[in-house]
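Reading group handout, session on sequence-to-structure problems. Before we discuss, look at one worked example. The prompt was deliberately terse, the way you'd type it at a terminal:

> structure Transferrin receptor protein 1

The input record follows.
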Amino acid sequence: MDHARKAIYNLFGGEPLSYTRFSLARQPDGDSSHVEMKLSAEDEEGGENGVIDHVHTQPVKPRKTNRRLCCVSSVAALVFLAGSLLGYLCFRARMPEPRECANGLEPCKSAQCASVDVDEPAQPAVQARGPEPEPMLYWSDLQNKLAEKLDGISFQPKIRRVSAASHEAGTAADEDLANYVYSEFGSYNLDRVWKNEHYVKVQVPGSSPNVISLDIRGGSRGTLDASKAYVAYSGTGDVTGKPVYANFGRSQDFDTLRGKQIPVNGTLVLVRAGMIPFAEKVANAQKLGAVGVLIFPSPADYPGLREDVAQFGHAHLGTGDPFTPGFPSFNHTQFPPAESSGLPRIPVQTISSSAATELFRRMSGISCPPGWSGTFSAACRLDSGDPAGVTVSLQVNNAFVERRILNIFGVIKGFEEPDRYVVVGAQRDSWGPGAVKSGVGTAILLELARAVSQLVKNDRYRPRRSLVFASWSAGDFGAVGATEWLEGYAATLHLKAFAYINLDSAVAGSGDFKFSASPMLKQLLKEAVTNVKEPRFLGNTLPSKEVPFRMDNAGFPFLAYSGIPSVSFSFTNAGGSEYPHLGTTEDTLDKLLIYLGSGDHLDIAVRAATEIAGRMALRMTHDHELYLDYNSYDDKLLGFVRKLLPYNKDLQGMGLHLRWLLVARGDFSRATNALKTAVQNTDLYNKVACRALNDRIMKVEYHFLSPYVSPKETPLRHIFFGSAPHTLQGLLDHLSLLKTNRSSVDEDLLRNQLALATWTIQGAANALAGDIWDIDNEF
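And the output record:
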């Protein structure tokens, strides 16, 4: 090549210019055939990280050679270069054009549309995973092959195997299921299968049962409920108080009681299950001075549940082992004793709806507001009436035990970026049989691992990135298994895991569809549910309804603790009512079949859920560009800024203003636009350039974790999805006091909240912008 270049120099009598490879850029107008020739510093060697840093020319002394020989060499070199260029252009002309966006009006330009390689064809996979040709499996063909792998599958045997009996975390039954999942993963010829163990503290019923009794006027006393259900992580002890009914136990429900002059301090609060997790109900009651909490399933919310059945749940306002907050519960760690601030100090117990009805019969106070009754046969009352009315005694004797839990993993390694992976997970344990709680998700996990493995082994699919399949234990105690894994590998997971798909309770009905998701995964989910082979009873399209992430959702710690985009979805009953048997001993396969109407309906619904999860997972391993909608947070930040503007004058009166926060939001918007332009102008077939872009994309979620709070003291650091003063919602709640109760505003705290929110957003903008020499902001 040196001789050829020098010959060209001699032929044209000029100074030699160094040569570079062709650079193919994805043009904004969709034309990918444009070829651009650049001049580089060194032959074909780039600068740092393979990127050619600068261009220069270098004069050399002319050589005294035979003129005729030089001309012949020069002509030969020109013919060689022209042939090479023509061949390359012909090759690129045969490459498929980018697919159009969903609206069919313009070619794809970002993750909001199909990526440029959607219809990129792939060659057969071989055993050696060295440098290989680009894959040629079209995305539409891959979807069809996945559907074929799932056709005719009956999920019921696996659901029945998992839900044959209670398998509480850390018990012999749970370990038996762990070995079953391990064996199944091994039979699918995954690249690797392994176990991960943790030693955690859970709370179980004590040696004597929990007791709820009524103290009736005149001195008589009677047992209210004798259910074996309990609430894990409850406070223990014996308390007595007047009953007060607080509907779902939300903040607005307690505000209603305050408006009716009904005090909560010193009372035993009665709340209905649903709407928010048990832990939030208990925290709200404890904050107002309640001495205990009773939780019951209302017939209006859980139709079909037997009146004498109570529910299981937990009261830890957090995720993971509450005695190792912010750090992993490996057996070899020697951390000093610690305790989560989310553990309640008051006793909590669940009761049946029949017990709640009996209690309402004894209450004679103020009638309930509309919508609070819960369709009881007894009149709904807010309190017990006169001072001599009924009181309730609650005795909780739960005990803490240490248990060994196992998480089971299997991986299908990527062919190009095995160190980048999407995680698909499901809870395996359950307090009762858990057909919906753990059986459905585990069955989907196993069948999806089998199907994807067959696509790789038999259908020549070569995923660019890895798929990790995870079976979690101790999910019933607050995503303990998943959270401890995240804490154990926190230093590396945010660099490698770019998405989490949660399969828990993916089928709990047959007439509606709901989901919770990071904004970055909503577009992916929307496309995944499109044209799924749906059951007739679901209609022609899957109706979608977004609900906020709840703390008891296993996808929540991935998002709020680790900054990994996550999504959770579920088929539910029409109208959004809860599956009545969830979290009870009635959650069996037979009950689920009755609830859905037939076994065919169950298999069809579970198959649809499996296909949706599979499409999302495969899409993120198929395309060159990571299918994460990084532009989505522009709208989230814009919505936040709009909520701040009404407080601008109040802040100015305190010597504060919103200017810098608005600038930070603007810088983030400019950074996402710049990244979008970079994606459009980058040859995504260049693996080095493509990986650099994907590294920036996958960090967007992570940089919304506040760097100004301790992961140990405040594990849920996400400023959108966390829960503490450092969050954007915490700032808004504090600002609202400027208009409602100005005397309670802590000005120093408010200044800190405003400053830290500004710098967290600015830091996210700077990180997204790229290298420090590409950052240009007004700060």
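Points for discussion. First: The mean pLDDT is 82. Second: Residues 509 and 573 are 4 Å apart (CA to CA).
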